Amino acid sequence: MMVTTRKKRSTTVSDAFNDDSTGKRAKRSGTSTKTTQAESVTIECDTTPMTSNDLHMHSRKLSEIRNWLSKPAPRGILSLIGPPGSGKSTAVRVLSHELKILTSEWLECDHEIEDDSFADFLHCRPSTRTGILLVRHLPQSTYNDLPKFHELLRSIPSSSSIIFCLPSTQSSWHLNPTRLFTPMICLDLGISQITTNPFATTFLTKAMKRVAGNNSDCRDAELTEIAKIADGDLRKALIILNLRLRFGKGNAYDKADSPISLFHAVGRIVYAKRAEKTSSSWKEAERLLNNERMRRPQPDFDVNLLVEESPYDSQKLISFVFEHSPRFTPMSSLHKVFDAISLSDSTLHVWNRRDVFDQYALQTVVRNSLFYNYQENAGESRCKYAFTNPLSDQLVKEMRKLVPENEVSMCWRKEYYTETVPMMSRMGILPPSMEYFSHNLGSFIWLKGLDQWKAQGSHQIVKTRVVEEEGHVEFDIVDTDDSDTDSF
Amino acid sequence: MADLKNSETIPWVEKYRPMLLNDIVGNEHTIERLKHFAKHGNVPNLIISGPPGCGKTTSIWALARELLGKHVKEACLELNASDDRGIDVVRNKIKTFAQTRVTLPAGRHKMIILDEADSMTEGAQQALRKTMEGYSKTTRFALACNQSDKIIEPLQSRCAIVRYMKLSDAEMLLRLQEVAAMENVQYDDEGLVAILFTAQGDMRQALNNLQCTVSGYGYVNAENVYKVCDEPHPSMMEDMFVNCVKGKVREASETIHLLYRLGYSPEDIINTMFRVCKVCDKIPELLKLEFLREIGICHVRIVEGLSTLVQLSGLVAKMCMMNEAS
Ligand SMILES: Nc1ncnc2c1ncn2[C@@H]1O[C@H](COP(=O)(O)OP(=O)(O)O)[C@@H](O)[C@H]1O
Ligand SMILES: [Mg+2]
């Protein structure tokens, strides 16, 4: 079924989703080629949820979306934002189908520049009173002219029901929908906000298990591994699972993508094992060092090989070293390691020449960590140690959970700063977002000095409550939960 | 110079570009995966990431050929970084291609290859997401890039990632020897080692350097290779580091001054320094890590515009101090 695209306003009615690439409709419309081999039926075909019972989503989120959809028209504007593959579009499609709500989706038209068609679309009332307009792709001009977009939002008549269903992008601030729908704008215009979160690993595993069915040879451990690679993204998990079911173990994903192999690389660095035997050329070189105490036996692995063949993002690898080093490195030399990390983070971080300078950063961090993490005969005393993802990832997730609805979150979103300050997200202490300061909407009253507040460390969660008073807004900062302080 | 035979003017990188997945050297596991794709069809959208010259473009085309057979001409479109790939191109050119009807066997799709996709603007990538969704029934995308994390997440979410590693020296050597034999190249072993050093795992560079040396000097030995590649000789650099370790600042500086006088730019010199330093086995571990750090810092300055002999001299002097200070 081709989507009809009229030149000016391009809408299709009802379930106009092409996202689930191999969805049911694709099968129904049957592109004539009868598939004979079982393997060429992609699994998503049979698993694209058609009823809300089959939806893989947190029941709380699901009911939030359902509640919004079930509101009597006009419902106003909803910004539904979440990472790719967190089930946003599918939820809207399935729920609006079940609730028999007519959906018109904006499908980009060809000439957007100086074109009002997007505005026309937002201003038009869907064909029946109860229907909704859906925007899943914003015109490019929106991102370039923010004030204009906000003006457009302001001009939308109150009789509308519109969903902006957009993927959050951490890699690009420019495209990030949170830049368009700031908490302030949403508050100001009464836009409802629902954010979906990445799926938990256990959740993805369960979802895949249902898809794979009982008659597959795919073990639970394997599913968990796929879930970890997918990193909260259900769409990605299903793509990998599909390959796994068709091509068997080992061909579905890259070994290097597996978290185990990343842990393995980090493990090598932080364990800093030295070889049993030291080659004579190594010994000869070490003899050239004046300070005898600083001579070392040969490492157990080739540093260049590990650094150059590492398919991991160097920032990620370094952040692992940063978080796990304190467990391994003697306290007396830890500062040397952190010094190297700090250098890699500041000086050696040249964004537009990353290909070159990432190598310097990695070399410096890995070699310093290896060198200073040296204790004679330390091998035996080191016990088993479980690697975890950097704490800050977890922290951000926790924060999202803690912030109650309708309270403006001052738990500065990762998106605001990861772009510009590379290791910032790993520091635990998050900077207040400049976004808030740049809005002249109100004054900030810090009940506690910023320095004191920072000193409380990474587990501090700060919430704010908005108090409207005489036309300006004040933020009242409330501390919660400071019991948990033993991080490292 | 006058009448070169036609075959001699073809760059070897093109002449010896493998046509089949089977002929691609290295990355066995990854190639194995692609072979499965080629055999069974129903390929997902792909992101192919890896360093330059490791065979990414080559293997996507090989995959396309094996998947599409005689249809490959009409059913496969490549856009690379030299093409204009702004938003409008993504909209129009790709759309037009995606809409063309081509009858393909079951489980086969039209393919759009976007080479060096990480150099596309974010806006163009965003537009691509829309196109990818819209034509998912008939068309698959293969995005080649150096770093997959430069592709925006909504695209990453829709693709299976296929990763390539830098080719090892052994793998490169294998291919170089094959090509050398087919072209009747006269070489010695040191010459090939020099090629490997200058190419740093980039097969395209290796083949180019080989061909240039042959056409410039006929015989491939280390000296000729470094002359052709216009790179400081690594053995000079190694001697310089040994002098740094021994604290002989005068001798170490001489090397740098000489290279500078010979016309190498500070960036060339520092690049060679880095490459030599990390593999040189005559530097004690502690000094090596400090050297690498200082070279990095100096390199940043050079990139920022302080491309002067003073910076290099400062670096050398600093390195000469380190053993004393250890
Ligand atoms: N793995 C390989 N096996 C054989 N030849 C290769 C390999 N990788 C690269 N080459 C050679 O190098 C040239 C460039 O390879 P290409 O696939 O364009 O690299 P890139 O990874 O940059 O796309 C090819 O023409 C081919 O001759
Ligand atoms: Mg290429």
Give an overview of the whole structure.
Chain A: It is found in: Nucleus. Chain A: Its main location: nucleus. The complex is a heterodimer of chains A (488) and B (326). Chain A is of the alpha/beta class and 488 residues long. A six-stranded mixed sheet of chain A has the order 1-3-4-5-2-6, with helices on both faces. Chain A has a three-stranded mixed sheet with strand order 7-9-8, with no helix packed on it. The N terminus and C terminus of chain A are likely disordered. By secondary structure, chain B is an alpha/beta fold. Chain B contains 17 helices and seven strands. In chain B, the strands form two sheets. Chain B has a five-stranded parallel sheet with strand order 2-3-4-1-5, with helices on both faces. The longest helix of chain B is centred in the last third of the chain and has 19 residues. The N and C termini of chain B lie far apart (57 Å).
Question: What is the molecular shape of chain B?
Answer: elongated
Distinct compounds present: adenosine-5'-diphosphate, magnesium ion
Task: Give the averaged pLDDT of chain A, no decimals.
Answer: 70
Query: Which strand-content bin applies to the residues of chain A?
Result: 5-15%
Alpha-beta content class of chain B = alpha/beta
Across the major sheet of chain A, the strand order is 1-3-4-5-2-6
Distance between the termini of chain B: 57 Å
* Poorly predicted spans of chain B: 1-7
